[in-house]
Specification:
Elements lengths: L9 H13 L4 E3 L8 H10 L8 E6 L9 H12 L5 E9 L1 H9 L2 H10 L3 E8 L3 H10 L4 E5 L10 H10 L3 E5 L12 H9 L6 H10 L6 E2 L6 H12 L8 H17 L19 H12 L5 H16 L35 H12 L2 H8 L1
Parallel strand pairs: 1-2, 2-3, 3-4, 4-5, 5-6, 6-7
The protein binds iron/sulfur cluster (2 copies).
One iron/sulfur cluster binds next to α14.
Length: 377
Amino acid sequence: MRFWPLQVDYKKAMRLIRKAVDSGVNYFDTGWPYHLGQSEKVLGMALAGGYREKVHLVTKLPMFMVSKADDFDRFLHGQLEKLQTNYLDTYLFHSMDKGNFRKVVDFKLIDKMEKAREKGLIKYIGFSFHDTLPVFKQIVDYYPWDVVQIQYNYLDTSKQATTQGLEYAYSKNMAVVIMEPLKGGLLANPPQDVMDLLEKAQNNRKPVEWALRFLWDKKEVSVVLSGMGSEKMLDENCAYAHDAGPGCQSEADTAVLGSVVEIYEKQIAIPCTACQYCMPCPFGVNIPENFALMNAVNIKISNLQDRIFRWLDKRKYKKMASVREKVNKNKPDGNASLCTRCGQCLSKCPQSINIPDELAKCHQVLGPKKSTAKLTK
Ligand code: SF4
Ligand code: SF4
């Protein structure tokens, strides 16, 4: 999901995936909509020729595109073909919330999963989740799932499934897979006052290592999914994993992260994780990029270097397209001013962000003064 930009560089991505397997990474998670359908394809190509057998391969039934029971077979077979494999290790219902859970029940999709398992097309059954704790417990209790995938990181312990949900799933013997360990990359690039706190701990850990160790420390966590878009990220993450595991955090580490959370919570303007589920916008707005810029300029700055970065972020916004003719579904580089408030993205956001409202605020902050006056009338 993180082979940024939206159009994947196939050669580079395949090289990176194979290097990951050679380095010991043995769990690969993808999904139908990632990179507008290219993610499963490039993963299948990379794993061909002997790599497939070395990994646990996971993809998801895109629940937001399922409107009848037969869609299950259509998607599963399409995904097996794209991934160039005869079976999936795990198949997840993608992005389960109250509405998508209703579809699973109404369309009897668990029967479909079980039939696919009997045929040897999948081994394990699970779901990925974006809703509240009561909904999470309701779904967990509905079926003896093998796996669940939740959004969890040191800033999101009381959001979505929450720590309580993580422990609940573990108590039911489910493997728990963590997504968004870095909150869409936000925890990899902390503001200066967070950096100061982390550095004071004097253990030489980088921000990413802090975030990953927080998760690896928990016995309830089976797998931490970290999107890696470069060889440098891959090498660093493998090195961080080397001596981590349950019990790797000290009480002092936990106290530092507690103070870090307090700082972040005051500064994050929009809780976007850059998952791209809202994309493509039919009017060419690059929704996650607008929100990333808004968050970047909102973070408290304390030195000249940060001031320069803020200025550059504002310039980036100005360089994004502001006229409709320059963007389209496949070239979504539009700034927030191109949002027509059509509402098509609203139900797709797992973070329940009111995207058109937040885009309007982005344009007020990042756009030219003249447009700001118009917007606030
Ligand atoms: S509401 Fe705005 S951002 Fe969302 S799909 Fe419509 S035009 Fe795009
Ligand atoms: S706005 Fe929501 S759906 Fe879109 S990238 Fe951000 S978190 Fe994902």
